[in-house]
Amino acid sequence: EVQLVESGGGSVQAGGSLRLSCTASGWIDSKYCMAWVRQAPGKERDEVAFINSDGGSNYADSVKGRFTISRDNDKNTLYLQMNDLKPEDTAMYYCAADRWNCYYQHGFQYWGQGTQVTVSS
Fold first, then answer.
1. Backbone angles phi, psi at 105, to 5 degrees
2. With 90 as the cut, is the pLDDT of residue 27 above it?
3. Each residue of 46-70: pLDDT tens digit?
């Protein structure tokens, strides 16, 4: 059984930092593309960043220069370092994984339960 478990969310003031983690169990390995997707209240889910099996990454324009995605394949863990947080970053953050696809609009095979990030002004 595949499981993705996120942690590291919380409440911070604008300008602060948080580091999210997502630990994968089951048959997810380094060949999978992994991503962070967020959903703000009343809005649709929005892909924040992904990292592919080669270590290449991509970011939404809204987080470029502030967020960094990384992975530790030995620990089967995905990270999202979030700096200079803004109130508009407030959302539930989900970890997702797919063997063949890195883009939310094409669907992901596996999802975590999410971790809440709240940024106050």
1. -65, -15
2. no
3. 999 999 999 999 999 999 999 999 9
Place of tokens 């002004």: 121
Residue 15 contacts by C-beta under 8 Å, 6 or more apart in sequence?
84, 85
Contact 46, 105 (CB under 8 A): no
Q: What is residue 33's predicted lDDT score, i.e. its pLDDT?
A: 96
What are the angstrom distances between the C-alpha of 14 and each of 17, 56, 69, 85, 91?
9, 29, 20, 5, 14
Average pLDDT of the residues in 19-48: 94
Cβ neighbours of residue 48 under 8 Å, at least 6 residues apart? 35, 36, 37, 38, 59, 60, 63, 67, 69, 80, 93
| CB of 35 closer than 8 Å to CB of 59 | no
DSSP symbols for 45-68? -EEEEEE-TTS-EEE-TTTTTTEE
Listed residue (15, 51, 23, 56) closest to 36, CA to CA: 51
- CB count within 10 Å of CB 116 equals 12
